[in-house]
From TrEMBL:
Domain FAD-dependent oxidoreductase 2 FAD-binding: 7-445
Keywords: FAD, Flavoprotein, Oxidoreductase
Protein name (Swiss-Prot/TrEMBL): FAD-dependent oxidoreductase
Cofactor(s) of this protein: FAD
């Protein structure tokens, strides 16, 4: 039987993969989109929104961003490790990509900022899940893109004519099929779920990083490219969003965004490390969750310490840092009930004791009693002499017990390194030359954007890059036809 032949085989059906698939359909390229999971969307299902600097929505709301200043901001933030040429191309096309998404069924709810960051975040209605499953996926299917699931790409071999033999392995019965592709686009989502690769990156404490994603980002695309001579281009960037409740008995995505999570990670309460002492101005950290994640990841263990009074106030009265529009009112009406339920369920992240001394023994933080006393004195004096947190956030941990400790790891969505690409998203070898017909998009090819930290000061850039890079790679392929 003759082998099937495609113009493009895309590895991974997440946000970047579907952007590439839809663009390929627009360019009349015979396309196969391969997904190893049972369902499509991957971590893209959880994406809130995408970046743009000059979208029609921003123009309408008078929220356009100076593109030259934005470029300088991103290059400075990365200490000039980011690729300035790629950033310029990305910024110039981001607004057009928002319009392109809307024309293909992805609905944008609003333009927002994150903390003190720029107003660049174009939030999806129904998050990335709806943008994919009500927009890009049905659009790609209607235009003839072939989509297969429960199938891994396990090998790529380049032929003398520069085409690829692509080995497709069925994950249920382990049978193989080989198809031929003129071009291969890697969109497998990075390697956040591959502990071995995480341990090889700088700047990380991988035991403290808690992936909050689809669980399928195991570096498949990177390994395929490395076997073809691609450069390993680790920058050590994990897209960390700060604290995450640490409990391996519960899927991490179920804990993110809950009232308990927000009360200890969005509110600048007292965070302590493994010896029971603070390590950061919590209010400075929560306005930039990349900084929050970096500061937490330097510790061996992290706990949020609070009293029953704080718990009751957050439930019945108010909390100090407004979270609108993400939390509709300045309190967590279900918080006390949620804590009680977590205690009944025996959640590992929750610790409770009648006194601070007993709590310190339970969580093995020997300096906690002395530090809580010191913290309460600073709160009474209205001055944080240790880290200069504003007085309004210095909530004393006092009163009658019980007292609580919530253990935190560092939540992360994805990685932002692994392969080096050029401005056409072609994968580069160890000499900086493109490997013919091989492209990396989304997390597989995002090292060009970063130093060691995600720039949350310009929100939506990673998801927006998924759209840009997917379209960018396919446009380069179409121009070769």
């Amino acid at each position: 039987m003759a082998e099937k032949k495609y113009d493009v085989v895309i590895v991974g059906a997440g946000l970047a993969g579907f952007a590439a698939a839809a663009e390929a359909a627009d360019n009349n390229l015979k396309t196969l989109l391969v997904e190893k999971g049972k369902t499509t969307g991957g971590t893209g299902n959880y994406v809130e929104g995408v970046f743009a600097a000059d979208s029609e929505l921003q123009k309408k709301d008078h929220a356009e961003i100076d593109q030259e200043e934005l470029l300088k901001e991103e290059l400075t933030y990365s200490h000039y490790k980011a690729d300035g040429k790629m950033w310029q191309k990305y910024i110039a096309n981001a607004g057009k990509n928002v319009s392109w998404l809307e024309k293909r069924g992805a609905e944008i709810a609003m333009v927002a900022s994150l903390g003190s960051g720029a107003r660049t975040w174009h939030l999806f209605k129904g998050k990335g899940h709806d943008a994919i499953h009500s927009g890009l996926e049905p659009y790609a299917k209607s235009k003839g893109v072939e989509i297969i699931t429960l199938t891994r790409v396990t090998d790529l071999k380049q032929n003398e004519d520069q085409t690829y033999n692509v080995t497709l392995t069925n994950v249920e019965d382990d049978t193989d099929e080989i198809v031929v592709a003129n071009n291969v686009v890697l969109a497998s989502g990075g390697y956040l779920n591959n502990l071995e690769l995480m341990e090889h990156t700088p700047h990380q404490n991988p035991d403290n990083v808690i992936p909050v994603n689809s669980g399928k980002s195991t570096g498949d695309g990177l390994c395929l490219a490395w076997n073809l001579g691609a450069k390993q281009f680790f920058t050590g960037m994990s897209m960390m969003f700060g604290g995450q409740l640490k409990d391996d008995s519960v899927p991490s995505f179920k804990l993110w965004g809950t009232a308990i999570w927000s009360s200890v990670c969005d509110q600048p309460q007292m965070w302590v490390n493994e010896i029971g002492e603070r390590f950061v101005d919590e209010s400075a950290a929560v306005v930039n969750w990349a900084n929050e994640g970096n500061s937490m990841n330097r510790q061996e263990r992290v706990f949020c310490i609070f009293s029953q009074k704080i718990l009751d106030d957050f439930t019945d009265k108010s909390y100090p840092r407004s979270m609108k529009p993400f939390v509709p009112e300045d309190r967590y009406p279900s918080l006390r009930e949620d804590i009680e339920q977590a205690e009944k369920d025996g959640r590992k992240y929750l610790h409770k004791a009648a006194t601070i001394e007993e709590l310190a023994k339970e969580i093995d933080t020997p300096n906690l009693p002395a530090y809580v006393k010191h913290y309460n004195e600073m709160a009474a004096n209205g001055e944080d002499t240790d880290f200069h947190k504003p007085a309004k956030y210095m909530l004393p941990v006092d009163g009658d017990g019980p007292f609580y400790a919530i253990e935190l790891g560092v939540g992360a969505y994805t990685t932002g390194d692994g392969l080096r690409v050029n401005t056409n998203n072609e994968v580069l070898d160890t000499k900086g030359r493109p490997i013919s017909g091989l492209y990396a998009i989304g997390s597989d090819g995002s090292a060009v954007l970063y130093g060691d930290t995600y720039g949350v000061n310009v929100p939506g850039t990673h998801a927006g890059y998924c759209i840009f890079s997917g379209r960018n790679a396919i446009k380069a392929i179409a121009n070769k036809q």
